[in-house]
Structures are given as structure tokens and as C-alpha cells.
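Course exercise 7: structure representation. Students receive a sequence record and must write out the corresponding structure in C-alpha cell form. The form below is the worked example handed out in class, using Superkiller protein 3 (883 residues). Read each field label carefully; the graders check that inputs and outputs are placed in the correct fields and that the protein name is recorded exactly as given.

STUDENT ID: A-19
EXERCISE PROTEIN: Superkiller protein 3
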Amino acid sequence: MTLLNSLLFCIFIAIAAGFGSSPSGSHHRRQCFLRNEDSISSLSHRSRLHSITRPSASIAPSNSADVEKAKRQRSYRTQKPKTTRQKVRTLFQKAQYLEKKGLWRKAAQTLNDILVLDPRDSHSYLALARLQARRFPNSTSATIAFHNGTSACPNSVHLWQAWAVYEQNVGRTDRAKELFGRALELDPYNPYVCHAYGLLLEKNNVTAAVNLWQHALEKKSTAALVCSLGTAYIAQEEYGKARKLYAEHLNKIPSDRERTEVALASAWLEERYFSNINGARQLLTESLRNATTSASLVQVAMARFEGRRKNERVTPYTSEGGIRKNAERRKLEQACEMNIQDSAADGRVFNALASIEVKARRLKSARQILNRGLELHPKDYSLLQAAGKVEERMGNYTGARTLYRSSLCIQPSAPCLVAIALLELHHPTTKKTNFALVKQLFEEALLIDPRHAPAYNAYARCVFEQEDDERQARSIFERGVRAKCPDAASLYHGFAKLELALGNIDSARKLLIEGRNAAKRQEIGKDSPHRERALFLMHTLGMLELNSNRIVSALEVFSDGVTQYGNSSQLLLGAALCEVRLGNVDKARILFEKSVINDRRHAHAWQAWGVLEMKTGNWKAAKTLFQCGIKNVPRHGPLWQAYAVMESRLGNVTEARALFEKGINQSPNSSSLYQGWASLELREGNSEDAKVLITKALTLDKHNGAGWLIASEIEQRLGNRGLSMLLLRRGVECSPSNPSLYRALGEGLLGEGKINEAREILEKGLEMDPTHAPLYHSLAELEARVCNVQGLAKLHQRAAAMFNSNIMEPSQNSSDAWASKIKAARLRNVPIKVTALAESASSSDAIFENDADVSSSSLLDDLSSQLLVGGISNLLTMDDEEL
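STUDENT ANSWER:
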């Protein structure tokens, strides 16, 4: 090892993992929280982590307060304690200092040194046990520390309670109950013991938990006790008791933060369960008036409250036809102005307002808001992290890294480490992604916060996508489930999507239902900040049921979601699609209208509504809907395609060509536009133009099975039967889950007299998609042709088992068929060169209107010169990477 490397190694050991370490006048020595000195073995790995988390000198410069803090933190080395108590206090400060630096084994050793000096120091036993439990979870060190501590300090309630919570977290509930009982023997009214013990009892005995919380509240009111008891009342639908409880204890709580927590719970009760909107607003207003350090928390809650009111009214249009300003955004803007004038304690409202702007794709506005917040709160680590996310989305990866580092140096947080991990994964500083480093960062995030659901979600997804290791990905999610994360929707949604990607439909359904129930439980007594993630979970569950042909179940899920989370455009669209499938066209129209009113940029809602009107013959209404959708989302290719297809069906070929041309100008990477145009030219007898267009479509997306069918039909019409069959075979390789390709190839082989091969292809198609009825017809025709009566009988039984005419009682085979289709998309070796299907839609936030005249012939000429040098047969010889 060179001298330079040795020096780097020593420096990194000393400072790389620390937060709050003493900077003797320089910000460079306040480094981020990493694992202990044994957790990273190689110098290169440590150096890499150091390079990621090293702060920039230009961010958050040190000041006199930092220097004074550093002097205080170093005081334990300069003072010469005289008494044992002073020695214990000094060593305890040293242990805290070492733990913040990440030197946990040394911190543990220091705490053990304290216990040598004072074997009855309960604080040191508690600190040692907690450190062992957090840092070395797979060892028995924590249990030994708790046992030694309670033996030396048998009257320490906090030690007994902490030990009970530890046993509960590792799954030993009977032992936890025994330890809680020992703590209550010492202090029967201790609010912390009663609250924690009640949460354990509530799982199986709600009455016992309620009695215990009521018992504790006789002596002291705390937010934890009041809110837990109130939630229990609400779960039992005893809303009056909950209201009385909140009113009785609200003014008994001395802490501003805890009093605010109870006030917010009371406002949620009035809004959600009594529909007392004015009462809820009054509670929030009074809480804001009385709040001191927690004012920003109330301001965000008020903004969310106003946003929900707007969402439930479903009337976002003003009389002038414009869009009414977002109520939540308006309230947050007012709160930001108040913070600027009053110098609030934190930048929470700026963060919330910037989040709204990011979701609306107004990134420049979000950047300005966060900059204003950072001017007032330069040491707010969450603002720095949010600013880093905005810079990352704007493509400024260097700036994002600088902001993430600054956030980490102020306060270690799991969200920030997750953000760094994802940045290193997708935009590494070197040519090749260091995935081992990315995994290490995820582990660091979970070490800081073992209950951070998005960390499990992102970690498992990265493992699955990068290493194709489904077992490890599933194991990560299972860790998250055991951790009982407060954001249950995010965790279960990610877990279910993993199972769904693997074709495990039943497992995915079970996880989504569990996640839905967990999310509902978590927001019984308060407004959850994770409501939007729960909404996404409900949407996924509804679409799973819809794709499984469980229409009634899907409609129930979507309706339940709207009741629970308000008029979400996605949920309303799902419900509308269900009504269409059930034949309730009028109900579907109402839901489509609500969907587009709630989100005018929801392209799929405009498209689906337009297609419904087109199918029912309401051409004028369909045209209006397509035009509205295109005006709001001009770069959504399928909208242009649907509009052009309608015009072509009406015989307006020139208008259809013009629409395809305009759509391609707006969404040049939309293969569906080229494919639709190719179909139009094929119907018009322009085979050469159709060949040009379908070649471009397949170049953009080789997984588009319909494109291969069109390409084959073109060659068939041109008399190139051999090339036509080759294109069908290539289509089956690239899009193995498209049943129409198997049918076309099977019928082609049957026409050539290749009976056995045709039967094999048709059977393979049914294996990929057992719900595709035309395959049964083709296979029946084949068996009848060879007089295979037994084969026809088996085929009839198979079809009868698959298709159920009663839509109220869908067959399990529907889910199995969808699972087969998903698994077919993940095949790697049968058929040859099969890869996973990739479907994407390009969108943009700019509204673009182009009324200029369009010349479709110019585009076709350009495509001809680019793509037909070697003909469509190029698609058969190009590698997968080239396509």
C-alpha cells in the first residue's frame, strides 16, 4: 500500500462515518454517517464511499457556533475530571461522540468502561443495550446488556421497558409481555410503558389495551396515549368517545409538539368521521394560532385539508373555463410568505410546496421555492435533500451530489442515502456502475432507519433489475414487512409488483390486499402523509382484478379507493373501464368525465372516453374528446393514433394522414403511430409506403407483435410468402406473448401442409395466452381437417373450462391465463432470443399546437431513404441491440 493510500485510509477511518464530529473551524471534517470500521473491508470501497459523501466547501460553511460546538465536544479530552460522577459523565459524552462517528465498537467499549467505574449506572446500561441492538442485531449482545443492566439496576423502569420493546421487535412477544409486567410493577402509571405495552396487547386484545391506556391517562396526558386510545375508539366506531377524549386532554398536554399532534388528530376526526368541515378548520386554525415550534406542521396539515376539499368537490373549472388554482398549493404559498415574515423554525412548508411543483413538472418553480427556503433555513437537511432531487431531475447530477452531501453532513437520513444510491446507480461518476457500492448505501440507509419503506422498495427493485436475483429481492421485502414500516403502502406495493413481474398473480393479489388493509389501519386516527402511495396501491389492485377478468371485484376496489382517497383521476378511470366492461355505458361516461375534470392531463382517460364514444357511433363527441386530450397532452402518441384511426374509418384518409404526421412530429418515438399509419396505407393499397412505415415502427419497438403481423401481411400481398413466414417467426421471438402471431404462423404452416408443426405452434400460443378465442378456432379447424375427433373433444373441454359466460363469477383460469402471459414475457430461451416486453409512452409538459399544413409525402420520402436501403429484410438480420 502506497504512502498516499495509507494516509487516505487513516483519514477515512477517522472522519468518513461521522455526523456531528468536531470541526475545528472547517466544515470538511463533519462527515456523513457510515458503517463502523469493520463494515467495509477494502480501501477502494471506503474511498468510494468517502468520495460520494464528502461535502463541498461551498455549501454550509462553518461559523462561530460550529466552532463553539466543536470546543464543547472536545472538552472531554481536555478536562481532568475529579469525581467518579464526573468521570462517568465525561466518558458517556465520549461514547456518544464515538457512536456519531460510526465507531460503534469503540463506543460500546467506552460504555463498558463506565460500568467498571459505576456498575449501577442505568443510563450506560440502557445506551449500551440500545447500541448493541441497533448495530449488531444478529448477536446476543443486546440481550446480555439488558440482563446485566436489570440485574444491577432492578428498579430502572426505562431498562425494563426498553428490553420489552426489544423482545417484541425480535418476535418474542411472550417474553416482552413478561418484561412489560415487571416495569408496571415498578411504576403502574408510567405513560411510556403503558403506551408500548398497549400497542402489543392491541393486536389480540383491544379491550385490554384500551383499559391500560385509560388507566395511564388518569395520572398524565401524553399525545401517544391520547392518540392511540382515540384511534382504538374510532376503529370500534365509537366516534363520540374519541371526540370527548381529544377535547378533555388537548389542553392538559404541556408540550407544544404533542399538543399539536392531538389537535391534528381531533381535526381529522371531525373531517373524516363527522363530516364537520367547519369544526375541523376551526381546530386547525386554533392550533396554528397557539403553536410555536410546530407551526409549520399545522400549516402543511391545513394545506392538505384544503386540497382534499377541492378534490372532493370535483369542480376544478372556473366560470371563465380556466383551471381553478390548486387549493393546497395556494395555502402553502401563503404559509411560505408567513414563514418569511415570522422566521419559522424549519422549512417544512417550502418542502411541501416544492413537492407539488415537482409533481406538476414545474421544476424551475420548485427550484426557486427551495432556494427561498434555504435562504431562511440553510441548515435544514430535508430542504437540501429536496433541492438535490430537483437538480437530479433537471439533469444537474453534480449539483445534486453536492446538495446530498451537504444534507448528510447536517443530519444523516435514510431518504438522502437512498437518493445517493439511486443517483450512483443511474448516473455513476465513472463509466461503470459500482453496484456493490449502491447496495452498501442502501444498507446504510436501513441502518439509520430500519423502518424506511422506500429504502426496502428501491433496494429490492435494484437487486431484481440489476442482478435478476428474485430470491434476494423477495428477502429484502420480507425484512421490510417484519420491520412494520409506517409507510405500509409503499412496501407492499413494491413487493406485489415484484410478484406480478414474476407472474405470481395470486401472491401479488394477497400482498396488495394486505397492504391496503395496513394502509387503512395507519390512517384511521390521523391524516397519513402516505395517502398518495396508498392510492397507487389501490389502483394496482384494481387493475390486477380487471386484467384477471374479475370485473365486479375490480369495480369494488376502485369505488372503495375513491371513497377512501377522494376523486383520483386514476381510480375514476379504472371504475369507468369496469363499467364499460359491464355494459353500463352511461355510468362509464359519468366516471370518464370526473376523471378528466380531476386531471386534464390524464391522456389515457381522454383516449378511453373517446374510444368509447367512437365504438358507440358518437363520432362528433369522440372527435371533440380526442381534440381536448391532444390539446392538454400533445405528446401522447396513442391519442393521435386513436384520432387518426377514427378519421380513417370515416373515410377521411387525407385527414387521417395529416393526424399521423402531426402526431409523429409531437411524439417521434411512438411506434404505434407508424404502425397505425402503415395499416392505413396497406388498406389503401400503398404497400411500399406501408413497408416504409412498419419498418420504422419495428425499429423503434421490436416487441410490438401487431407490427410484425402487418409486416408479414405486406410481404404476403407483394407475393413474398417466404419472407412473410420469416417475419412471423421473428415476431414470435420478439413478442412471445402475442397470441395473434401464433395464430397467423400456425395457419400459414397449415396452408403449407405442415400439420404437426402448425399444431405445435397453435398449442404454444394457447400456453402463452389461454384466453385468446381465435386460437381455439384455428386449432379446431386443424383437428377437423385431419379428422381428429378425440382432439376436438379435448379442445372443447378446454375451452369450456376457460370461458365462463357469467361475469359475476369469473373463472380462476382468467388469472392463470394472465400469469402465463406475464411469464411468457420473461422467458429467456424458449423461443430463441425472447426478452421481456417493454411498453412506454412518451409525454411532455409543454402544450404544443401546430396548425401548419402537413405534407405526409415528405416524411415518407425521408423514411424511404433512411430505412429501405436493404429492404424490410434488414429486420431479420439485425441483432437485438440494433433493433
